[in-house]
Amino acid sequence: MTDVVDAPGFWRVHCHIGHHPGQWQFWYREQICAVGYPPGAGYTLQGSSKDQSWSGVRNALARMREGDWIVASMPEHRVGRLGRIFRLAVDDAVWDPIVPPRKDLPHGENGRRILVRWDLGVGPIDPSVVVTLPKAVRFSPGEVRATIRAIPIGKLEHIRAAMRDERNWAPIIGAFAMETALSDYIALHPDQLEPGLISHTGLNVRELVMPDRGRIDALLQDRAGTPVIVECKQHAPSTVDVDQLLRYRNLFAANTDWCPEGRVRSILVHGGASRVAPTVAEYARRNGVELVFHQLRVNFISSGA
33-92: per-residue pLDDT in tens? Predict the structure, then answer.
């Protein structure tokens, strides 16, 4: 008689990069996922529990098996990497916190470790770059709640395909603190946005206040002398953002003092990932709005006398 081998499970484990910066980089380097609930604070694997969130995590840990698939998830529909579990170090007796104990965390944090082997053939190799899941592949509201959640195994290949697509890759934190910082940078270095762009020569302003009191983030002109209106967004673009830029463009083009020839270009610089929602991309293309994805990169060089 042939033994029946169960299909591997698939788990989403949330990485709290907001509470603990550097957490994902540690997970990546050490090939682990980790959860909290210290036994010293009463969160034990045996016995009753009145904490609903811990009960859910405890049940999930009890169901995990070696060979199961696992994905590290983060806020804003992002994931780090896929891997397979090869050992569970989650027992109360082996609590080993990633975040060391301190006054407000007397037991440390994230000490229940799930040891994994990351699939290095899928997704960005650089741990500072993660994957923004397209809308069709994102976890459902039920799947995204809680620290650990079982995911249907059928979703694995869809997530794998999204992770292979470099258009979904984006820096984990690389962003300007404010959109004004991004527009300031573009105003100072317009040629970084497009070779040949310069500040507008006829209107001696960086930002231009429109008749509806809206404010253009940056006003440039290209090599042909055509005015270029730039709108900056930290997040992935939406049709609302495109409409805002179209309103500015129409108001600008209607003013013969600003735009005597009636020609004007519009560029929406956005964050998120280089892949945008198809409906937004088509809407922008149909209305002549150029979409440009921005990344913040910082280089460090040893200094000396």
Answer: 999 999 999 999 988 888 889 999 999 999 999 999 999 999 889 999 999 999 999 999
Rounded to an integer, what distance in angstroms lies between the CA atom of residue 6 and that of residue 165?
A: 30
SS3 23: helix
Domains of the chain (ranges, CATH numbers): 10-170 (3.10.590.10), 179-293 (3.40.1350.10)
Say which residues have a Cβ less than 8 Å from residue 206's Cβ, sequence separation at least 6.
187, 199, 218, 219
Under 8 Å between Cβ of 57 and 146: yes
Residue at 26: amino acid letter: F
Structure tokens belonging to residue 146: 């809680």
Task: Identify the bridge partners of residue 118 per DSSP, sorted by sequence position.
Answer: 83
Helix (H) or strand (E) holding 35, with range, is: strand 32-35
Strand 218-221, strand 198-199: pairing? antiparallel
